[in-house]
Amino acid sequence: MHFVSSALRLAGFSLALSFAASAVASDESQLIESINLYRSQLQRCAGQVSSELPPLAADPRLVLSGASIGNLQQAMATAGYPMKNVQAISLSGPRDAAGAMKAIQESFCQIVLDPQFVDVGVSRQDREWRIVVARPLLSARLGDWQAEGQKLLAEVNVARTRPRQCGTQSFNATTPLAWNATLGSAAETNSRSMANNNYFDHKDRDGRTPGDRAELAGYDFQQIGENIAAGQDSVRKVVDGWLTSPGHCANLMNPQFKELGAAYATDPKSDAGIYWTAMFGAQ
What we know:
This protein is an alpha+beta fold.
């Protein structure tokens, strides 16, 4: 009887430990969600208004202890992260993710709103927080823009086969999109413009909107939509990022869209290195 009682106490103790661990993990995940929501909206930071930015992807290699922060390059090498650029934020005092997010907005908005960063890791020890944002070296071997555009179409169509919640909007599974070469050409032009002119925005340097670009390319549309991404070096990473962002996800799942064209472009001198555009349309 005594042995059974001890075993039960041990089981209860390990359950409490696992519950505490999951509570901490959810607080860290919550901060990443808050950062991505902040990036998805226009923000005023350091006297400027930011563009809408894609979500940062959680990368376990960027979850660093306080001792690792001193030499970030060495920490990245040890973690096996092929770094192009990295920044770390250290916070002392916030009780929870909401408090940490408030401190980031007040003092570190320029770091989390920097368009070159694509990955994030958050660690926490009591009231000490470490937020690491990074951009990896482009390591994937990509085909030409048409080949990768067709791969992106395939990934989008897989996503459309399942019901999905995009923020507050619910979408049923819907029909696949067809490739449209005219939209593909417009997407390639936009990706090339962003890469060569080092910006990330739905409005190009001549003030043209997605609808303007579609019309200029010769696409006679009833409805047009556009998703853009930067920094990710694979189609899977791009689509996964869009699915976690309510507005991008809603475009991707919209049953009114029937066609898609997509493309990427690279420029090593640009902040993000690689830029993606997907144009959704219905004629």
